[in-house]
Amino acid sequence: MAEILKGKVVADKIKEKMKNDIEELKKNGKIPTLGIVRLGDNPDDISYERSIIKNCEKIGIEAKVFERDINMTTEELIALMEELNNDNTISGVLMFRPLPKHIDEAKVREALSPSKDVDCMHPMNLARIFEGDMSGFAPCTPKAAMEILLDYDVELEGKNVVIVNRSMVLGKPLAMMMLNHNATVTICHSRTKNLPEITKKADVVVTALGKAKFFDEKYFSENSICIDVGISLDEEGNLSGDIDYPVVSELVSKITPVPGGVGSVTTSILLSHVVEACKRM
């Protein structure tokens, strides 16, 4: 039976540090504040928004919601970004994506100040990661995956890591973070040939295909450390990761559950970025 890498344990440590930092900031008259930009009333966005606000309240971060009409123009959204850039009461900005198709997302991303870009939208913050500079704000999900590995003392130096995802949101920045810890990284994707042969030889496998229970025991060995970032609904309508957890957890060395794994840490990472942004103001 695998060791279960629980996200809550990691998230709680991050929150505890944040509480101490927030107390110090408030002594100096600073209040970490997250500006949430939402276009329209998508139920998933509203649900996520409520979750973030609830987490903010628990640790002493303020949250301000900037709800706008889904039909607003690119120019109007850019103007809002500039307004938030110049608002000294806003420490960091989170904008729900994907944006409506008529919005030029590239222009909007570039309009947000990198110093308030707590969700790593701005090209400058992404570029820093590819240069090996981790001083900016990294994408929250790959950083959450790294935090779990580091908190559970998983040695990455010299290890073979396979990441099954090639997106700029997860796979590519995560590869850079792994390289920063001297791991040897292979990026795979849905069209990779002989995928089970590649993942089975790896020390660490990060899955992020978004296909429920896609990875069964043939993809892993008894030494595998599995970080499951995928999240979707299985055939029974239950929340599931990419890995067939009941089967694979009986075989591998370590594994993150879904829910209760990487996702549990992601929001804490986002909020820690808000606190850090406030420190730098």
Description:
There is one protein chain. The chain is an alpha/beta fold and 281 residues long. The protein has two domains: 31-114, Rossmann fold (3-Layer(aba) Sandwich), CATH 3.40.50; 140-263, NAD(P)-binding Rossmann-like Domain (Rossmann fold, 3-Layer(aba) Sandwich), CATH 3.40.50. Helix content is 41%, strand content 16%. The chain has helices at residues 7-27, 43-59, 74-85, 105-111, 123-130, 140-151, 171-180, 195-200, 245-248, 262-280, and strands at 3-4, 33-39, 62-68, 92-95, 160-164, 184-188, 204-207, 225-228, 232-233, 239-240, 254-255. Strand 9 and strand 10 form a beta hairpin. The radius of gyration is 19 Å and the shape is globular. The model has no long low-confidence stretch (mean pLDDT 96).
- How many structural domains in the coordinates? 2
CATH architecture of the largest domain: 3-Layer(aba) Sandwich
**What count of helical segments does DSSP give?**
10
CATH third-tier fold name of the largest domain: Rossmann fold
Strand segment tally: 11
**Could you describe the largest sheet, including whether it forms a barrel?**
6 strands, parallel
H-E string: EHEHEHEHHHEHEHEEEEHEH
Find the structural class using helix and strand composition: alpha/beta
Coarse morphology: globular
Distance between the termini: 47 Å
| Portion of residues within helices | 40-55%
In percent, how much strand structure appears in the residues?
Answer: 15-25%
Average pLDDT, all residues = 96
Largest beta sheet: strand ordering: 1-11-8-7-5-6
Q: Would you state the CATH class of the largest domain?
A: Alpha Beta
**Which stretches are low in confidence, meaning pLDDT under 50 for 5 or more residues running?**
none
CATH homologous superfamily identity of the largest domain? NAD(P)-binding Rossmann-like Domain
Radius of gyration: 19 Å
